[in-house]
Amino acid sequence: MIQFKNVSKIYGDNHPALHNVNLHIRPKEFVSIIGRSGAGKSTFAKMLIAQERPSEGEIIVGGWDITKIRNDEVPFLRRQIGVVFQDFNLLFNKTVEENVSFALEVAGMQKQKIRQVVQPILKIVGLQGKEGRYPNEVSGGEMQRVAIARALAHRPKIFIADEPTGNLDTINAQEIVDLLKKINEFGTTVVLMTHDRDMVNSLRRRVIVMDHGEVVNDLESGKYTL
Ligand code: ADP
Q1: pTM of this prediction?
Q2: If you take atom 17 of ligand 1, which residue's CA is the nearest one?
Q3: What is the pLDDT of residues 109-151, one digit of tens each?
Q4: How far, in Å, from the CA of 84 to the mean position of ligand 1?
Q5: To test ligand 1's pocket by mutation, which of 9, 14, 15 has the most ligand atoms within 8 angstroms of CB?
Q6: Ligand 1 atom closest to the CA of 39, numbered from 1
Q7: Which atom of ligand 1 lies nearest, measured to the CA of 43?
Q8: What stretch of H or E contains 2?
Q9: 73-78: long-range contacts (C-beta < 8 A, 24 or more apart)?
Q10: Which residues contact 75 (CB under 8 A, 6 or more apart)?
Q11: Is 37 touching ligand 1 by the criterion CB < 6 Å?
């Protein structure tokens, strides 16, 4: 589903972020990528959605070599990959439902069809009854659920969560992780980037450990200790 072959990334002239990364994530896997701040996790996520391009190496997503993806192909790639970040990036002048609908409107979907798609997604993420609220009228955990719902709207095959619980307390964080597990059970490949060791250990799924831009360990459902 996702393959990195000898991928390196250097920002500018001499800001190395990834060094010779090789990894293979299979369809329907739930993989955590753990590492300290600056290890290269966000760079990895950004390259998957072609927000950044590798300096060297090859990136294959769903059989598609996106290493030299054309700019006009990028929206097509992004419809297949749902992404959420630590900052929820919601539109504060739009309601919960409108935040989720917006991407589908932009993609040209008809209003009635959008409702049919959005309603069940809001239910999955546990936001039914809160459709008409604005982001500042819901909790942090709920804001992240809105972001997750928005990322699910295109029914992506791959779901990337880059420090999705970084701004949340423990209880809300656990609920978001449970939601990611549910998304994975529906058959979506999930890649979770985090620095939270307890979180990945509680998941008991594959853990890829990054340090200074390199993959330093790859544990099949292993228990990770620093
Ligand atoms: P993480 O997500 O694990 O915290 P990042 O991928 O954000 O790591 O960063 C990896 C390295 O790349 C860090 O040393 C960081 O300072 C550097 N870096 C990230 N983005 C940029 C950028 N736009 N320009 C220069 N250096 C960057």
Answers
A1: 0.93
A2: 17
A3: 999 999 999 999 999 999 999 999 999 999 999 999 999 999 9
A4: 18
A5: 15
A6: 3
A7: 6
A8: strand 2-11
A9: 74/49, 74/50, 77/49, 77/50, 78/49, 78/50
A10: none
A11: yes
